[in-house]
């Protein structure tokens, strides 16, 4: 987290990608994040694991605000 503070996020992620490579795992507090910084790597990841990234996580707040997560931004992948 201390790597991200103090600069523009896209510059910081670019610098981290130069140091650690195009595929990085970041732990931002409780949130686990995968950062892909090259188009070739993104194509490989999304081609292989597209269903894992197709849905949004279930959140009680979003269920209440968005009619059981059925709006366009938070609807689950597939049939409701």
Automatic annotation (TrEMBL):
Q: Report if keyword Ribonucleoprotein is assigned.
A: no
Protein name as it appears in the record: Cytochrome P450
Asked if the record carries the keyword Ribonucleoprotein, the reply is no
Q: Which family does it belong to?
A: Belongs to the cytochrome P450 family.
Tell me the superkingdom of the source. Answer: Eukaryota
Which keywords does this Swiss-Prot/TrEMBL entry list? Heme, Iron, Metal-binding, Oxidoreductase
Membrane-crossing ranges are none
What Pfam families does its record include? p450
Organism listed in the record: Solanum tuberosum (Potato)
């Amino acid at each position: 987290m201390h790597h991200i503070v103090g600069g523009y996020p896209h510059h910081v992620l670019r610098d981290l990608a130069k140091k650690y490579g195009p595929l990085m795992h970041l732990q931002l507090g409780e949130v686990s994040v995968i950062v892909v910084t090259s188009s070739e790597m993104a194509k490989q990841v999304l081609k292989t694991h597209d269903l894992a990234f197709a849905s949004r996580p279930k959140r009680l707040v979003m269920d209440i605000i968005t009619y059981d997560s059925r709006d366009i931004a938070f609807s689950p992948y597939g049939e409701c």
